[in-house]
Each structure stands twice: as C-alpha cells, then as structure tokens.
Design brief:
By secondary structure, the protein is an alpha+beta fold. It contains two helices and six strands, in the order βββαβαββ. It has helices at 40-55, 69-77, and strands at 2-7, 10-20, 23-31, 59-65, 81-88, 97-105. Strands 1-2-3-4-6-5 form a six-stranded mixed sheet, covered by helices on one side. The relative contact order is 0.17. The mean pLDDT is 84.
C-alpha cells in the first residue's frame, strides 16, 4: 500500500510496503528534502521493523537508487546488509533506474 508521512500538515515523505511470505519489503521510501537529517528516516525504519514483527515477518528488505549514497549509509548504519542490485522503472515512464537492495533479519 502506498502511504505518506505527514508532519504538521506537511508531507514529510512517502513509502510503499509489500508483504511477501516471511519478508516485509519497503519500496520507494523517501523523506522530503527540506525535512531530511531530522531523524524521520530512522524513525520510519523503526516503525517498519515493528510492523514486520507484528506481521510475523523474519526479514526486512528495502531498496534505494544506486546514486543515493546517504540512504545507503543510513541503512548500513542501521544494520542492513547490501543484497544486490536490479534495474526497475520506478516511476512508470519507461526509464530504468539501478536500485541497490538491502536486507536485515528481524
């Protein structure tokens, strides 16, 4: 389901979560550039982990653009391991982007 994070009537970010067997997968997660580096990303990852536990999932998976070094560093800092990369048309316009996948056991 596509969702948004709102803070003081302002869109703070957006995400798309997919439940798949024993894994919870987070696609297209982002925090508004003006609100980055304020802890929203880490707070959401904590929410995401708790949601996985509630659903009985044993693995968290997520991806980010290969060019997004800040997100990759945050995911590594939070204990995620790099799990490969793929190409995907993330905005459905025919353009393929390279995504780096990460995962972490719950």
């Amino acid at each position: 389901a596509h969702k948004s994070l709102e803070r003081a009537q302002r869109l703070a970010g957006a995400y798309h979560i997919v439940e798949q067997k024993d894994a919870l997968i987070l696609h297209t997660f982002g925090v508004h550039p003006e609100l980055q580096r304020r802890g929203y990303g880490q707070s959401f990852i904590s929410f995401y982990r708790n949601k996985a536990v509630q659903l009985g999932c044993h693995v968290l998976r997520l991806d980010t653009l290969i060019t997004n070094q800040k997100s990759q560093a945050m995911y590594t800092k939070l204990g995620f391991s790099r799990a490969g990369q793929t190409e995907a048309d993330v905005d459905n316009n025919g353009t393929l982007y390279t995504l780096v996948g990460f995962e972490k056991a719950v």
